[in-house]
Amino acid sequence: MDLKQRLDDALRRIVADDLGLDVPADELDEVLALVAPRDPSHGDLTCNAAMRLAKTAKRKPREIAEAICDRLSNDPEVMAGLAEIDVAGPGFINFRFAEGTLGALLEQVHTAGQEYGPDPAEAPRRVLIEFVSANPTGPLVVVGGRQAAVGDVIANVLAAVGHTVEREYYVNDSGTQMLLFGRSVLARYREACGQQASVPDDGYHGEYLIDVARAIRDEHGDRFLAMPEEEAVAALATMAAEMNIADIRRDLEAFGVTFDRWYSQKALEDGGAPQRLVERLKADGLAYDEDGAVWIRASRHGDDKDRVVVKSNGDFTYRTTDLAYHEDKFARGNDVLIDLWGPDHHGHVITMNAALEALGHPVESFRILIVQHCTLYAGGEKQTMSKRAGQVVLLRDLVADVGVDAARWFFVMRRTESHLDFDLELAKQQSPENPVYYVQYAHARIASIFAKARERCPWLGAGDFRDGRFSPPDVDLSPLTDRDQALINPLGAYPETVAAAAREYEPHRLTNYLYDLATGFHSWYTYGDRHPECRVITDDEPLTRARLYLVAAIQIVIANGLRLLGVTAPDTM
């Protein structure tokens, strides 16, 4: 565990035990933020927690700061890496690292390389994350693309902290939407066969169905015209859905997203899972009959009312199938289920939580993340999307326009529950305003530094480089200035950033971290361009070696973070 993490843990204990404050975890992350001070003479890290907690604690900020300092000073584990803790101004707490601490951090980054990151979870779990799961009634649109990127990165960071993670796509190939879809395909098929037909008003009007119907006609001729209509509808719906799923799978794979399992709703229903669930609910006293329907006692577990699981006509409700599906997920040995849903399913969250708790699953074993829609802007104009109306922006078209890297970054750079405005023009810019370009450019810029060093520094040998990076077995870091050392501090925050992104299911923490790290590097490097004594490559061999070692560590962390995001780390741009 790095020093910054030990400080964070100690501060949390002090807030809870010594100050007796109950601060929500998400607020505490911000309150206890440890950052590098603007003026390096103030120390290596600073924290304004005392001022943030003063109102809640009903004490003066400086008094709180001094109490925190006193407690930390008596913690041997914390002080092992610190030379000094002091209180400044109205209540800032400044930390100065002990000699060698920063050097040890750089060595840790270099030694671990691609493995540099968070410590393994104390209790690894089997996690099943289900995401995208778009209906197979059409191609994958941009909304599904955001879910794909968010879900994939969450899976990556969960795996990075040691959990066993499986990705699953739930194929909604049953129900009313498939009936409407089949009727829409039949209409397009009849047109393809030269007959007059029209898509139902509540059907799917997208032009993509014209191509699907023609493909079916080309392979099978007009044989579906001779079938009874409902038989033809069912057959065409199944055939067209399989074609769409194949397209969706290809689009996702091109986007860097693969699934361990594609799970069919129709197969679940045909196997009798919903019926078995209802029988279990009744046997356990969790359901009852009323007004000809069957109701689950959801109100006993946090829902605002009981919910129907079997309608009076004998049909299952959509929540019944959902519950049966999630019971199957648990039955497969998973400890934690994570679902990514669109905002139109928000009202279903409480019911699912209540029903699964009623079935005996602890609340912490199931998490629904609402992924808000995104709006594309092209040339300042909003792009509309509707699979049924045919006004769609496909994920594959977006990727062709801005690239996989920009699309994945932009999709995850905001909180999942926040609406995303996707600026197509910005995503294509090669400028500091484009965050993914800015971070990738930092990686490429460091690669160019190594190339120049090989040309200009005759004292460098093959043994000084590993995997293209400057990484000799031993480097004297004493020549580094305070300004240089200020770049090292953020590297220690990387493991906890990944751990927090996994713990809170918030991939945007990683994009924010990488952008801040790149900003610090670019500022440092640009300053060196104007001040020769601050450049990486100088006539001073020990100083040059130390700075090459420093920027190599930055490049390692940037590459590791980009890999978790599914974004490339280029050496040239």
Secondary structure topology:
Blueprint lengths: L2 H16 L6 H7 L13 E3 L1 H9 L3 H13 L2 H4 L2 E7 L3 E6 L3 H12 L13 E5 L11 H19 L3 E8 L4 H17 L15 H13 L8 H26 L6 E4 H6 L2 H11 L3 E4 L2 E4 L10 E4 L7 H14 L4 E6 L7 H10 L7 E5 L3 E5 L2 E3 L11 H8 L1 H9 L7 E4 H5 L6 H22 L8 E2 L2 E2 L11 H4 L3 H4 L1 H11 L3 H23 L10 H25 L8
Parallel strand pairs: 4-5, 4-10, 5-6, 10-11, 12-14
Antiparallel strand pairs: 1-3, 2-3, 7-8, 8-9, 12-13, 15-16
Task: Describe the protein's architecture and organization.
By secondary structure, the chain is of the alpha/beta class. Among the domains are: 3-97, Gyrase A, domain 2, CATH 3.30.1360.70; 176-240, no CATH class; 432-565, Orthogonal Bundle (Isoleucyl-tRNA Synthetase, Domain 1), CATH 1.10.730.10. It has helices at residues 3-18, 25-31, 49-57, 61-73, 76-79, 101-112, 142-160, 176-192, 208-220, 229-254, 265-270, 273-283, 318-331, 349-358, 395-402, 404-412, 424-428, 435-456, 482-485, 489-492, 494-504, 508-530, 541-565; strands at residues 45-47, 82-88, 92-97, 126-130, 164-171, 261-264, 287-290, 293-296, 307-310, 336-341, 366-370, 374-378, 381-383, 420-423, 465-466, 469-470. It has a five-stranded parallel beta sheet, sandwiched between helices. The protein is globular.
